Amino acid sequence: MELTDIAIKSIYAVIVVSVLMGFCSYAVLAERKISSWIQGRVGPNRTTLPIIGSIPYIGRFLTRLGVFQPAADGLKFLFKEDVTPGHVNKVYFILAPVLSLVPALTTVVVVPFGYFENAAGEVVNLVLADLNVAILFLFAISSLGVYGVVLGGWASNSKYPFLGGIRASAQMISYELAMGISVLPVFMWLNAPGTEGTLSLVDVVNSQGGALWNAMWMPGSFLIFVVCIFAETNRLPFDMAESETELVSGFHTEYSSFKFGLFFVGEYAHMLVGSAVVAILFLGGWHPMPFMTWADFGVHGWLAGVLSVGTMIGKLCGFMFFFMWIRWTLPRFRYDQVMRIGWQMLLPLSIANLIVYTFVIYFLERP
Amino acid sequence: MPIVVKRKPLTFLEKLYIPEIVRGLTVTFRRMFFGETVTLEYPEQRPPIPAGYRGVPTLVRDPEGREKCVSCQLCEFVCPPKAIRITPGEIPADSDYAHVEKAPKEFDIDMLRCIYCGMCQEVCPEEAIWLQNQYSMSGYTRGEMVNNKAKLYELGGTLPDQHFKWNKKKEAAENGGGHH
Ligand code: SF4
Ligand code: SF4
What we know:
heterodimer; A: about 375 residues; mainly alpha; B: about 180 residues; alpha+beta; three-stranded antiparallel beta sheet; 6 helices; binds iron/sulfur cluster; transmembrane (chain A); ubiquinone (chain A); EC 7.1.1.- (chain A); quinone (chain A); NAD (chain A)
């Protein structure tokens, strides 16, 4: 690879990661705002900036909306005292938050987020690395995120984090299976006999362009996958590892300041990547509506780039909202219920779903 | 008579989870966009204080501006946590109220000690000390949390009481004979 290629890729990577971080911090704000609206509160509405905050109406509106809050949160995480309790295993204690953030950021590499047409009219996909085994890479790396949680729980050397870590690993194992099986129909449909085999996410999106979105004719897969995503990202109602009412705050009880911030950002990065994967696999990626692509609307060139990325971000935000909406609606499952749902309901359901769609795909006329 | 709540067995739809989850989601969605906000944004908005609220103890004046406290020190004596400290003082002979004999020279209430029990108000024969609706006290030092006499009168204001007991006493004394 040429040196300039590497430079361009690095710049892309930095941009993508910083955009992702920005999304993370605003996702935290959205979480706080949505929770407060659902609970009849107002949420963060005081933080303000010297100049922008004093613009007559806009400044006040932004302040009430809490737009400046993430800056304050971030600074707080940076400058608060970082307590490392004496009874912890120092190396792993420090390693754990890093381990939970890095996989989340790594998976972004294979997530495509749009396309544009260059001067020659060729379609260029906006993705850091269009791997042919993207989905496998994604599942493999994102499941490494749980090591951060388990390690954090174990290295903390105290009861609640330990229990949180154990729960996280059990939950991970239980839901990974159902999740993997539930996406198989999507790829079976993609890899029709006679075509070149692919597991690339870009191809998944393209296969949904000008056709039904996968969620529409595979609602079973979609539902199982979404439930598993909730479990994988440790979100309520599956936040066994954290469950603040039972385990104080689970695996990160002993963490403070910046290390806690890393866990926090890691969770939201996982959510973002999860939402992006749902949008790509089941909700048509950057295609604006079923049976229509941007090209069908007559959009070409760089405008297609803007609109496709916009659509993708729209779907991503929509699903993030769904994540939060669910969190403030459903109470947490009990640990045994989580295990029962995972092994006795989702796993058989996903296998049945696989069998049904094997036949559906076999008999279905290909367009 | 205990009330037995009958629990209906779940119907098939309810056992499926999903419809019930959707129902829950609609509830929270309605709350999010059409629900009322119940937050009281504290420093700007204050809760209404009910009558008879026991807030910070204060000293009051009567409508003529005379300080009602006669420095009898009953409140100091009764105060359970010993939050009150009074130094009694004479009233100067040329004052209109010289006949009252005494007034507090210093009157400190330590708000770090006060338990807002209201005993001082209860015991005061002159209705001079009142627990009013002030409820938020804060300061950076212990010293700031001690209300001195000036502060107590500032917080207390005037008691609109037209009784003027001491005027009657004075009249009675000047006309000879006791006042009842
Ligand atoms: S309210 Fe109670 S504790 Fe406070 S000054 Fe009066 S008697 Fe003392
Ligand atoms: S406030 Fe009342 S009880 Fe206390 S010293 Fe004055 S007159 Fe006596």
